Amino acid sequence: MTNCEINVARERLKEFHEGRDGVPDIMRNRNQGDLRDYSGKIVNMLNYEILKSYLYNTYYSVFILKEAPEKYFYGGKVITHELLDHEDAGLHPDVEKAGMKVKFTEKSHTDPNKNNYFVMDYID
Fold it and tell me: Which domain of life is it from (predicted)?
């Protein structure tokens, strides 16, 4: 094996082990953002990931915005379901390529004991 092949093998091993720290790539080197800062504003979603919570045996979404590239945002149940619909329709690659203009709006439950939630509207 040549030195070049050994270096490539070491680099591949390093990348593999760095990726096993449990941090999804979309969150790596970013801080968590607060979606309330963008409520009511039209923003550009650059990418998203649907992740599985093994603790709660459910799915959740994480996404990034053009307006805050240094942050990632968690989508609640409503946003996650919207993005799962995008996945089912095969639209994730389109979001990655072109971005998606959206507007987040905070809503309140009729039950005062439940937390507020966000909805996402697609803006043409």
Answer: Archaea
- Distance of alpha carbon 56 from alpha carbon 64, whole angstroms: 23
Write down the residue that tokens 């591949």 correspond to: 12
Give the residue with greater pLDDT, 38 vs 19.
38
Contact predicate 73/46, CB 8 Å: no
| Chain segment 61-101, per-residue pLDDT in tens | 999 999 999 999 999 999 999 999 999 999 999 999 999 99
Q: What's the distance, Cα to Cα, between the start and end of the chain in Å?
A: 55
Residue 31's alpha-carbon distances to 54, 69, 70, 111, 121, in angstroms, are 22, 10, 6, 31, 24
